Amino acid sequence: MIYDLAANPLNSNEWSFPLTECFHVASMVLCIGTIAVVDLRLLGIGLRNQTAAQLVRATEGWTIAGFSIVITSGLLIFSSDPLKYLHSAPFQLKMTLLLFGILYNYTLHRKVAQSSPPSALRFVIAGFSLALWAALVCSSIFIAFW
Amino acid sequence: MSIAQIFHWIQSTGWANALRESDLAYPIVLSLHLCGIAFFGAAILITNLRLLGLALQQSPVADIVRQLRPWKWAGFILVVTCGFLMASAKADTYYPNTWFRIKMLLLALVGIHALVFRRSVYRASGAVLPRNARLAGCLSLALWLGILSMGRWIAYYEKPKKVNASLKVSEGVVGREYSDLGTTFNYHAG
């Protein structure tokens, strides 16, 4: 069976691809942004009147919603030209970071963010989290420039 | 000096030339732009979710807004600086771009929004949700979503009358041109 790229709606009209990208970017803010709020709190910046655990509770639903939309729209974008993405080094890096980032966020990161009293590891855990998601964002941009 | 001439002058400056001609600088500035959006967009998001009563309801609005304010400004300056650099590299093509113009208009509306709701919502103290809080939150989210969308659409703008369909399906060849991303991908369909 040959997959006909031209039959994919993302390739056959002018607005569906950019629209999907808009959903992708907006939901990226929703998931990475809400994680960053917790990271900055762990570093002692931002919402300091709230505990990191409170911020996790307040944002976790939004983070999940963000991940759901970002992955769904990402799969759609991927379907517009699977071979191009599969052979792209920045894309491979991005998928590795995504898989690792999700695992990290829901295991170590969460455990440290919810620990009371605050864990001594919180600076390392938050700094690493910020670096990881920033690297993922950069690798996304480089897909188009590689 | 007309606005078009100012745009042309910006494009001819040293930094704009350097950014346009470098293979690496442009994607790096774009990456910083997007990282800024990811990390600092969160400050706007959390503020608005609080105004809508959808997160951190136990904390007063004023408390959340005040704590996030410096962070919001830092992010805004980073994102605008990167955006300005990217627009100056291609100022001549940005000037007639309708989506770019709408984006600038929406940014101006964000400023007006801030002035209108500053006293009644964003600087309000007290535990009670200000009366206009929901309205201010909805409008702010709508404006920022519009700005984000227009930002993405700038890359897909085509000058009127010029026959250069971004998507050409002929003889089994599909070519989508990423005009603003500086790369053209072509592949054979089927």
Describe this entry's structure for a reader:
The complex is a heterodimer of chains A (146) and B (190). Chain A is mainly α and 146 residues long. Chain A has one domain. Chain A is 77% helix and 0% strand. Chain A contains six helices and no strands. Chain A starts with 8 loop residues before the first helix and ends with a helix. With 190 residues, chain B is mainly alpha-helical. Chain B folds into two domains: 3-156, no CATH class; 158-190, no CATH class. Chain B contains seven helices and three strands, in the order H-H-H-H-H-H-H-E-E-E. Chain B has helices at residues 3-11, 14-21, 25-51, 61-89, 91-94, 98-122, 133-153; strands spanning 167-170, 173-178, 183-188. A three-stranded antiparallel β-sheet of chain B has the order 1-2-3, with no helix packed on it. The longest helix of chain B has 29 residues, at 61-89. Chains A and B meet through helix 2, helix 3 and helix 6 of A and helix 3, helix 4, helix 7, strand 2 and strand 3 of B.
Instruction: Work out the strand percent of chain B.
Output: 5-15%
Main interface by residue count:
A-B, 47 and 46 residues
Strand order of the largest sheet of chain B: 1-2-3
Rg of chain B computed from alpha carbons, rounded to a whole number of angstroms:
20 Å
Q: How many angstroms does the end-to-end distance of chain B come to? A: 52 Å
Oligomer: heterodimer
> Would you report the number of β strands of chain B?
3
Sheet with the most strands, sense and barrel status of chain A: none
What is the helix/strand order of chain A? HHHHHH
SS summary, helix count of chain A:
6
